[in-house]
Amino acid sequence: MTGRLQGRAAIITGANQGLGLAIAQAYVSAGANLFLCARDATKLAAAVNSLRGSAAPGQTIVGEAADVSQQADVARVVAHAADACGAVQILVNNAGIYGPLGRIEDIEWSDWVRAIEINLLGSVLMARAILPHFRAHHYGKIIQLSGGGATNPLPRISAYAATKAAVVRFAETLAEEAREDHIDVNSIAPGPLNTRLLDEVLEAGPERVGESFYARAVKQKENGGAPVERSAALAVFLASAASDGITGKLLSAIWDPWETLTSHRDEMNSDIYTLRRIVPKDRGLPWGER
User: What is the mean pLDDT of residues 210-233?
Assistant: First the structure.
């Protein structure tokens, strides 16, 4: 991936730990200039210092504390990124939380709303703020981080599931709005990662997240989970010129053959790798049509 993002600049949200930091590390290796943001200023400063240690001479690595659910913070991040890096070509909407764990009638409503504000509205605000910049240059890459909640129900983790499904449909919709300006918008499903979100599930216990989900979390912890490097590599691909014209897709970092998608670019202009409704005939059943 060395040099694949040379001359490009990226804003990465939630970049002070976990997958966000892994993507930032991959982008540094690929030659990108970075503007990172996260709510925890101390962790963010440590991440920036670490990334600068592996950066090439002249590579810009800047961090600024911000809350993506606050419109003023978002406007400041986009403006400062343009000042620090010049033209910005990439936005990675990684910032996210699990939100409250438990049955919908038992959790704090304010916590459920907060998950919506960060996971969904935060990514929409960031996209809204960067789009005029991308449209002015007739080019851009927006990468959304999805999760298992986009394609499967997650009982007792309803805020996370709802926001991740919404993030993907927003990306599919924005892809069509922005297509004529050569702005690609895609989502990444990273798979089960052993990050702080998994630790939250284990700390919550089976009584809050359910016996089966907790058991899977324990097994995931023991097995090591999906490698963050795969998601980071996919994020590099989607930010590079190699993926130009591939847009409106939800791609699994660990299951989909995304390295070869450039040879199927024309076929990708369809509902392949998108959210859709399953009807009886999709399961070989003879009923369900009028």
Answer: 88
Q: Which residues contact 71 (CB under 8 A, 6 or more apart)?
A: 125
Alpha helices in 55-146 (DSSP H): 71-85, 109-115, 122-137
Task: Tell whether 4 is covered by a domain.
Answer: no
- 279 Rama class: left (phi>0) / alpha (psi -120 to 50) / beta: beta
Complete edge-to-edge strand list for the sheet that includes strand 140-145: 61-65, 33-38, 9-13, 90-93, 140-145, 183-189, 250-252
pLDDT digits (tens, 9 = 90+) for 238-260: 999 999 999 999 999 999 999 99
Name the 3-class secondary structure at 27. Answer: helix
Domain extent at residue 91 = 9-191+227-283
Q: Which residues pair with 10 in a beta bridge?
A: 34, 90
Active site residues: 160
Domain total in the chain: 2
Nearest-5° angle of CA 64, CA 67, CA 69? 145
Q: In this structure, which amino acid lies at residue 194?
A: N
Question: Are residues 201 and 135 located together in one domain of the fold?
Answer: no
pLDDT at 247: 97
pLDDT attached to residue 3: 86
Query: Does residue 65 share a domain with residue 134?
Result: yes
Residue 147, domain member (yes or no) = yes
199 and 156 in one domain? no
Confidence check: pLDDT of 128 > 90 = yes
Residue 231: inside a domain: yes
